[in-house]
């Protein structure tokens, strides 16, 4: 590779002759790892012109660098970083000496929160019972590509490249209001919709607008771990509410709650679906508390066994439900595309906050999704995923029963995971470690709990990313590991 | 268009016969504007199966809807929303009755900040002297498209679709550390770089990590208006520092300042470039204050007249400079891609905050930019933009001189705008309104100032988006409007 001449820079403040400074510049580049062995240096003429020095100065510097074996020259093809050049130091060059006390300079700390349990290289495991990743076999890659190319076309170019400031792609918003939300029973105007960078971002925006250190947020326990990191930033008070097999019990939401966070379609991680009667009761409780409900409509489109129940938002004439939707699960997580639906005064604040934080989700991503949705590809993708998961889920159920494992929670309409319970005395954190060595990935349950001394016996088995024919052998390995752990216990 | 059957929904809580509820559902859809005249209804068979009711019930409902002219039927092709169906009400259906006191429910307010002066339909004006939008004629659309398609290819698919959690695309980070930052004289390791959703997002993250209500931020006055909205959220104290023709005077930064925000390459809006001596003095002042400097390396790539000076970050052995870069200006604003460079403890906190707020910028956008940069398209684009702007800037200078207008500030290395001064007594806010009616867009200067009673005589003329042959006539119109305003004044 040729090293672009623009990457060379003489620091005006440096001392020494021009020639020495050029030599030092190259040597530092090699030692810092920026210039690599075998890469082609600019010609003496080009470098001289770029640096504004005489060509002779550069030629003399190159000669010295040849002598010290930083460079080699090849007949008629110029100078290259030598294969014998010193290896990069592996630490920052000596000139850098950190003089800032970052423990003091950092005003607010955010690091140290929940870290995902899933290894980055999950795809290299044979039995990945993990949650929420795309199965590349199911995704309609060709159609997505066509939509992306269309969104890159001349007609859409202006829409894609303009800075919307605080606006969204009108085509995507229109599709969501006219096609997506009606499937959840929700009728909303464009002013009541805000596009977000996935559900995570939607929950973050809602929390920032609605909460203060004086307000109390009711959270499902166990629940979505990332929500805690989000709420930590608002410094609000947190009221954990234990969920049961039917999800969040409305009567258990304490007095004084200002905002209720719930995932009624598919509770995370127990998979419970909030029944219709509880939906009505939850809204009545919110009305009595004069509280706002933030509905994370998590995995509603994974209702492939029975139709999804209407969203809480659809049952809410008061405007007290803020609805969070996402395309990250049904398209792919790296897409980072979701939406908030709520009353106009709320959306106005969330939009202003979004404008300050990052303005808007990239225009091209919004327009690509709009085309994909409009052409019906999303619908067929959801149907295809539903068919595949119906099959996998049946295999999961059969294999779990065969192996004698215990299901603790399961979605009424489908979903993509089982919430499991290990026999008494088994710590699923240790179990997950053991299984990992056997190329099996499971998710320990403890990180989902809010309580200080969480139960250690739960685990979650996702089936979006494991091929059907590996489910049986994978479940067998889990059962064997459990038997060994009990034998030792 | 055929209306998908999935968008129909019977609210379980509703009263009335099934047939009446189906009629009401369709009528409400029409009145809310969701179902539009001429759209095709699902067949009675499909709707009956979807709703789980008998086909006869649906057929009877359709008959009633035909009678009330909500629907029409066409021989052999089914039912359609009638062309005589009632028009949408233009207000939410009566069932929605907002019962939330949002003045109370909103915990934190974000709306009401600086609104951009630029009209959304700027492209329809003949003389748009606006700032920061892409000229579609200059952008290398074909190459960007190829890179996007490559990033959508099978090889990159996993990289694009995976949820990185808090990581970035390693290919983009590598390019930035090895190719982009060296052009600014900066050497950084991948752990010292964080990809952001544009410069706005980078500044927001830095402000959140570094500032608290007890700390003081020094800001350039006049300065980048969006920075004030960002800092408002940290509730920090703000020390405005008046800039002069050479940018921020380091000696004027008050004692007690904890964080200094500056745009040394191209001050916004005065276009001033911080000279080398001031760069050294600024770092010395920061060292004396033990302050952090946030360097917005705004428009460094627009140095087409003389090479850019090295970034502050490159002159900083202490690690006290946080560097903000962006591809939004040199590629296109809707891309929303930038980066933060800083010491590892700082980047770690910014990364954790980013993970809570939105996880990471979309993978596909990162990978597309990585390809575009790696293949050298960005370099040639910057060169092409530089050539075009050199020409336009010369025409601007000649026309401004010819028309007798006064330049108040100009970038030493190039840039894309002039900071102008109207004759005494003229309010450029009113001037901009007058010119707008004449199809000329200029930016009034007052919104850039921090002081409570800002001077009203400045305005900014951008030349990225106006064709060269329209510059002369546009400047003439500005001069005429100024002459008329003085005649009245």
Automatic annotation (TrEMBL), chains A, B:
It holds the Pfam family GntR. GO terms for molecular function: DNA binding; DNA-binding transcription factor activity; pyridoxal phosphate binding. It comes from the Bacteria. InterPro entries: Aminotransferase_I/II_large, HTH_trans_reg/aminotransferase, PyrdxlP-dep_Trfase, PyrdxlP-dep_Trfase_major, Tscrpt_reg_HTH_GntR, WH-like_DNA-bd_sf, WH_DNA-bd_sf. Keywords: DNA-binding, Pyridoxal phosphate, Transcription, Transcription regulation. Residues 16-84 form the HTH gntR-type domain. PANTHER family: HTH-TYPE TRANSCRIPTIONAL REGULATORY PROTEIN GABR. In the C-terminal section; belongs to the class-I pyridoxal-phosphate-dependent aminotransferase family. This is Transcriptional regulator, GntR family. It comes from Salipiger marinus.
């Amino acid at each position: 590779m040729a090293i672009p001449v623009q990457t060379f820079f003489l620091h005006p403040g440096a001392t020494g002759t021009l020639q020495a400074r050029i030599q030092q510049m190259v040597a530092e580049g090699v030692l810092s790892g920026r210039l690599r062995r075998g890469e082609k240096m600019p010609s003496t003429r080009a470098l001289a012109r770029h640096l504004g020095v005489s060509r002779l100065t550069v030629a003399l510097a190159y000669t010295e660098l040849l002598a010290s074996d930083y460079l080699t020259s090849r007949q008629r093809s110029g100078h290259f970083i030598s294969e014998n050049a010193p290896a990069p130091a592996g630490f920052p060059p000596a000139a850098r000496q950190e003089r800032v006390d970052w423990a003091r300079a950092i005003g607010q700390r955010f690091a140290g929160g929940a870290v995902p349990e899933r290894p980055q290289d999950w795809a290299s495991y044979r039995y990945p019972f993990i949650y929420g990743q795309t199965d590349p076999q199911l995704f309609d890659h060709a159609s997505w590509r066509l939509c992306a190319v269309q969104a890159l076309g001349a007609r859409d170019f202006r829409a894609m490249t303009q800075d919307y400031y605080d606006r969204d792609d009108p085509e995507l918003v229109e599709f969501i209001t006219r096609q997506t939300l009606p499937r959840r029973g929700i009728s909303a105007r464009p002013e009541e919709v805000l596009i977000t960078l996935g559900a995570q971002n939607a929950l973050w925006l809602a929390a920032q607008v609605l909460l203060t250190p004086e307000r109390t947020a009711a959270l499902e326990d166990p629940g979505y771990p990332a929500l805690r990191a989000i709420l930590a930033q608002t410094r609000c008070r947190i009221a954990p509410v234990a969920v049961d097999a039917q999800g969040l019990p409305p009567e258990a939401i304490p007095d004084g709650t200002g905002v209720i966070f719930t995932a009624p379609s598919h509770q995370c991680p127990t998979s419970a679906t909030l029944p219709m009667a509880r939906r009505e009761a939850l809204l009545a409780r919110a009305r009595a508390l004069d509280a706002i409900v933030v509905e994370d409509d998590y995995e509603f489109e994974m209702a492939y066994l029975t139709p999804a129940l209407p969203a809480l938002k659809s049952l809410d004439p008061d405007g007290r439900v803020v609805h969070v939707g996402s395309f990250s699960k049904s398209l792919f997580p790296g897409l980072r595309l979701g939406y908030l639906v709520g009353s106009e005064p709320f959306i106005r604040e969330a939009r202003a906050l979004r404008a300050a934080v990052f303005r808007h989700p990239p225009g091209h991503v919004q327009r690509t999704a709009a085309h994909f949705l409009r052409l019906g590809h999303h619908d067929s993708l959801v149907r295809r995923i539903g068919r595949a998961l119906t099959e996998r889920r049946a295999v999961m159920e059969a294999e779990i029963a065969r192996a004698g494992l215990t299901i603790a929670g399961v979605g009424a309409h489908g979903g993509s995971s089982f919430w499991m319970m290990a026999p008494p005395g088994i710590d699923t954190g240790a179990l997950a470690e053991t299984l990992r060595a056997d190329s099996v990935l499971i998710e320990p349950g403890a990180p989902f709990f809010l309580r200080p001394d969480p139960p250690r016996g739960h685990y979650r088995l996702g089936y979006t990313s494991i091929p059907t024919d590996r489910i049986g052998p994978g479940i067998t390995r889990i059962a064997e590991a459990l038997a060994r752990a009990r034998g030792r216990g």
